[in-house]
Amino acid sequence: MEVLTLLGTMVALAAIGLPLVFAILAACLATLLIFRPGLPLEVLPQLFVNGMDRPVLLAIVFFFLAGELMNRGGITRRIIDFASALVGHVRGGLGQVNVVSSIFFSGITGSAVADTAAIGTVMIPSMVRKGYAPGFAAAVTQTSSVIGPIIPPSIPMIVYAVMAEVSVGQMFLGGILPGLVIGAVLMLVVLLISVRRGYPVERRASAGDVVRTGLDAAVALGTPLIIVGGILGGVFTATEAGAVAVLYSLLAGALFYRELDLPGLWAAIVRAAEGTATVLVILGASSIFAWIVADLRVHQAAASLLFALGREPWLVLLAINLLVLVVGLFMDPLAALVILVPILLPAAAEIGVDPVHFGVMIVINLMIGLTTPPVGYLIYLSADIAEVPPEVVIRESLPFLGALLVALGICAYVPAVTLALPSLLR
Questions:
Q1: Which helix (H) or strand (E) segment is 376 a member of?
Q2: Is the bond leading into 224 cis (omega within 30 degrees of zero)?
């Protein structure tokens, strides 16, 4: 009854339109009032504040701001030009450019929505003009944007690291190879569909064009190198890497590219503040939720249910992934992390799954939810840019969703893909 009250109240309130953070808080309050009436309610604001009062969360502020500064600093066009010089000559050239641009862009913003908006507004119209189906162009854009929160920096990775008490640096490094795996399988699907439909290729760029566009984009692409290189080399922590990324992005946009002006700077600060506030209030509510989950021993009940199917690690991982995929269909990734991590992480630990491996797997899983109905934000954003109905994007996305599931399976059942780079940090 305690668990049903907690989860049922939260789902019911969210279903009638109450913002999820308030649905979580109301469900926690109702559960405590009914089943722990003697508990001093002063503990709730204390837990809420403690959930946000952690130095590592400064990294969220910095990476939000760095991404916004780079978005407004003239990087999108330069990244796309460089990607075009590298892979434009492959069959389905602009589709390949779309995926590679997302890989590059993910190391700057760490946001799937920002990736779709920035890359999509340039690439989708260009692909349509070259003869690609608008739905196909939107499908490539929205599914490749999943890479954004996988390759560092990544806001969901920071949130998971705080909740699971693991290193942010290890989480960042753990996402690099899985992000590249996702990019590779998506490029393969683009190639196969382009061959079947006869989509065009672009002119092969000369060595001079590759060098010229590479040098033009080098400053923009320096951000992920600074973040990963600094953390891997022990020069600074993930939080300090965020601060360095902000300074670097500011100098690159304002002094080197000369496209970041004062209105753009102010808009970046406001957007970063809004995004940070959204994440922090969710984390504050999550600390109360996690405390109640631990008190009610919900994770033990979840583990018992999972292990009822068998204790083989592959079977437990399959059950976890199927559960998270279903949750991701209906829930925002950050909110799903808040609810699922305290429940599922202990079960994963019991079968020997490394917490970094588990975290990257869960983040990939929930990012897939952004590309699937009914809640998938990226579907509607890319459909709006392509000026096609969302159902057209959904239909064209099916082969790419299959590729994403293949990549998820690789990352889930081949831990070395995730853990090879974090082992260097350890």
A1: none
A2: no
